[in-house]
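Marked as duplicate of an earlier ticket. Keeping the data here for the record.
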Amino acid sequence: MAHYDFDIGILGGGAAGLTVSAGAAKAGARALLLEKEHRLGGDCLYYGCVPSKTLIKTARVYHLMKEARRFGLPQAAVPPPVYAGIAARIQAVIAAIQEHDSEERFCGLGVRVEYGNPAFVDEHSVGLKRSRFSARHWVIATGSSPAIPPIPGLSGTGFITNKEIYSLEKLPASMVIIGGGPMGVEFAQAFARLGTKVTIVEFAGQILSNDDKDMADAVMGVLQGEGVDFFCDSQVVGAHETPGGTEVTFTRGGQTRTVRGEVLLAATGRKANLDGMGLEDIGVTCGKKGLTLDTRLRTTQPHIYGAGDVTGVYQFTHAAGYESGIVVSNAIFHVPRKVRYTRMPWVTYTDPELACIGMNEKAAAAAGIHYTVWSEAFVDNDRSLAEGETAGKVKMLLDEKERLIGAQILGSDAGNLLAEWVAVMSGGVKLSTLASAVHPYPTLGEINKRVAGNFLSTKIFSDRVKSILSFVFGLKGRACG
């Protein structure tokens, strides 16, 4: 049997790499973690989920301060925010979470951590600086980086991405965002609420192009009400510096238009970090979006796995955690597990949030599934009315056999409300169980019970059922009108 320095080696110290490292070490494996930066945590901690959600919360609080009159309170004068204070809070939150992702913690678990840019020298070994490490199994979890669109003149501007936005010296007076995906719309609302004039230019015919248009349009309507301008179905054809900012030129409806912003943010997706690792030299194949993987997350070299953004499927931290569990099961416990994404949830953290699990209408139509939609509006929920958060609705999709295939929630705290649907779908819970479960009043969670009840009531209180009850028990029918 061949001898290797480590049972498993992990390339990348982000969400996926850290999860695999911890799981493998706790199982008794000798694990090596290699990270190109000089700190663990990855993009999610320093430039992604953690700082963006911190920024979003700060912007929401500031927005509510300015909306005091809406809640029956006296409207006080609210001074403009100072971005340095916001940035300091963001860094404080990052620092608190980073303690859980520290080298000391992982060393305590038994994981050896090294820093630098590794590259494979053969199928089982990587070179790092002047050292060489071998492992029985390897996991590529190197994450992703902002995908920069090939726009003429863009490289000559001072555009920023999510990696630079938290280091701004001051709050910009205006901002142009190229890209209307989750990242673009989240930043747009946050900065608009803080006082920046924001414009989004989006190539597709709608923002949030993976979501159903009715839900995406509702999000856009809220942001428009808060002052964000949108130009969808637009092709950016150029960008150049002007005094005091950057000018973006785009075509829309056969016409050429320009918008100008003090700051230009490129939010046009992500690309997998796979360059410079010598993958092609050891027979590891990559596609346009990421690694070529089988259902057990093995590359074309079966002892080398992929997890996290490099899979090119779902670029979410929770997806990375799920994939890491699949890898540990296969590589360490040798228990065959296949990845299944049919119940992967995702949330866009606008206000209101847009949360989804399973299929939406777009996905069902693309799959040729005949479906029905059942919905319940937040305006009909008593807690929503009490809190003044009435925008949005929940949508439940059933297939032709009346089986639950997906749920979407646009509304206050939608990400947390989705947890009930995660449990329902993952646990195979019947809709009758959800509809009959006692939910505390008044809570937003009642909306989940209500939409399931809407469907079941058509069965329970149908004309046929009423006729049978009338015949058997002598019920006399309506007492009014």
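See parent ticket for discussion. The longest strand covers residues 131-140.
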